């Protein structure tokens, strides 16, 4: 092979050596893929409700939902980037999310308080998914993933509490 040919040949991607074995990285990435699917589904549901909410609490819910979906938009990026840092492709299609997510789509346009109830359930689902990945990350001493999961748990549990308070 000539020097010219070598220059055209892409360099081999170095093996990932971050102190977490390949099987553990794969298991963590799979768990994070489920979380990403939940986070993205929650984002879409919240954005849909933001657009379509009506009723006496319109302004309050419209603004609240906007705050929530903006936070979710940032979260999906953080989760996807962690999957990539572990050496795996992040899912990024609706069909992948539909298979991986524990949150179901909402058909039609529910009334405002039903939207709130559905969002409580969706935030709790995200919390459960994040919590299910935690033992895998903890066993592998994957502190960055554990930190990400802790942050997501805090957001989802607090948001579920605040939304639940509207239903009392």
UniProtKB/TrEMBL annotation:
InterPro entries found in the cross-reference section: DPS_DNA-bd, DPS_DNA-bd_CS, Ferritin-like, Ferritin-like_SF, Ferritin_DPS_dom
Segments forming domain Ferritin/DPS: 32-168
Top-level taxon of origin: Bacteria
GO molecular function: ferric iron binding; oxidoreductase activity, acting on metal ions
PROSITE patterns in UniProt: DPS_1, DPS_2
Family in the record: Belongs to the Dps family.
Name used for this protein in its record: DNA starvation/stationary phase protection protein
Species lineage: Bacteria, Pseudomonadati, Pseudomonadota, Gammaproteobacteria, Nevskiales
């Amino acid at each position: 092979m000539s020097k010219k040919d070598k220059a055209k040949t892409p360099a081999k991607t170095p093996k990932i050596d971050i102190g977490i074995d390949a099987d553990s990285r794969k298991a963590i990435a799979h768990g994070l893929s489920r979380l990403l699917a939940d986070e993205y589904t929650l984002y879409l549901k919240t954005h849909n409700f933001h657009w379509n909410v009506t009723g006496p609490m319109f302004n309050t819910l419209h603004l609240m939902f906007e705050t929530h979906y903006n936070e979710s938009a940032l979260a999906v990026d953080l989760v996807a980037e962690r999957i990539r840092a572990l050496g795996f492709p992040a899912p990024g299609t609706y069909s992948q999310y539909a298979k991986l997510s524990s949150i179901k789509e909402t058909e039609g346009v529910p009334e405002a308080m039903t939207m709130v109830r559905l969002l409580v359930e969706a935030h709790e689902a995200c919390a459960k998914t994040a919590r299910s990945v935690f033992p895998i990350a903890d066993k592998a001493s994957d502190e960055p993933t554990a930190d990400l999961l802790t942050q997501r748990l805090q957001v989802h549990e607090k948001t579920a509490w605040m939304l639940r308070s509207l239903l009392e």
